[in-house]
Design brief:
Blueprint lengths: L8 E10 L8 E6 L2 H11 L4 E8 L4 E2 L2 E12 L5 E18 L5 E7 L9 H22 L13 H10 L5 H9 L3 H32 L1
Parallel strand pairs: 1-3
Antiparallel strand pairs: 1-7, 2-6, 3-4, 3-5, 5-6, 6-7
Helix pairs in contact: 2-3, 2-5, 3-5
Length: 216
């Protein structure tokens, strides 16, 4: 962590993204083309390479109040001053107030962390990992593709909770709720519920597929 990241409250350039929720330790590739965000990124590259990602809800037209700080780890300049960059999620934050909105948003933010666990989270994390493996196995069976979990799946319960949350698709509102939780156990328990529901749905489809194949 840099010394600036230890400050409890600081100003942070903010980048709202439609239905994108970034989590700590997770990568986020970006293509920067809008003029005000090109200005923002050029400014950030000259300082500490950090900015905040907030989920924008295009239906409601609202911007989330809790987001995740991103650090630029690699960037490539393209023609017309566009940029491709790879960023990595750092710590989470809550926006206290907007300092300015032009040419891009800058907020006064406070960092937030999960509360220290009151129980051993490893059994819960193991359950979530097993559910994850069940879902992957059933997905591979249904799609007849070779789908595998990465070998470097996080061991730490909190990092596993971020990994699972970041790999949920098409449920940005649910991801936002998981991001805002400050209790690792609660986050893992909710992910277990989601994975159980997904596993049961996939298992039912797999039975139907096997039945159909037997008849044909």
């Amino acid at each position: 962590m840099t010394s600036s990241s230890k400050i409890a409250v600081r100003e942070l350039p903010l980048f709202p993204l439609p239905e994108v929720v970034l989590f700590p330790t997770r990568p986020l590739p970006l293509h920067i083309f809008e003029f005000r965000y090109r200005i923002m990124m050029n400014t950030i590259l000259e300082s500490d390479r950090r900015f905040g990602v907030l989920m924008f809800d295009p239906v409601k037209g609202t911007i989330a109040n809790t987001g995740c700080c991103a650090e630029i780890v690699h960037h490539q300049r393209l023609p017309d001053d566009r940029m491709k960059m790879l960023t990595l999620g750092q710590q989470r934050f809550r926006v206290l107030e907007y300092v300015r909105e032009k040419p891009y948003r800058v907020g006064l933010v406070e960092w937030i962390e999960d509360h220290p666990p009151t129980k051993d989270l490893r059994p819960l994390a193991s359950e979530v990992e097993q559910l994850l493996r069940d879902v992957v196995r059933l997905s591979a069976k249904l799609t007849e593709q070779n789908i595998e979990l990465p070998e470097d799946l996080p061991d730490l319960p909190i990092e596993l909770s971020y990994w699972v949350a970041s790999n949920l698709y098409g449920v940005a509102a649910e991801q936002q709720l998981l991001l805002e939780m400050q209790d690792t156990a609660t986050r893992l328990e909710r992910e277990a519920e989601i994975l159980i529901s997904t596993r049961n749905h996939l298992a039912a489809r797999a039975v139907l597929k096997d039945t159909f194949n037997e008849k044909s």
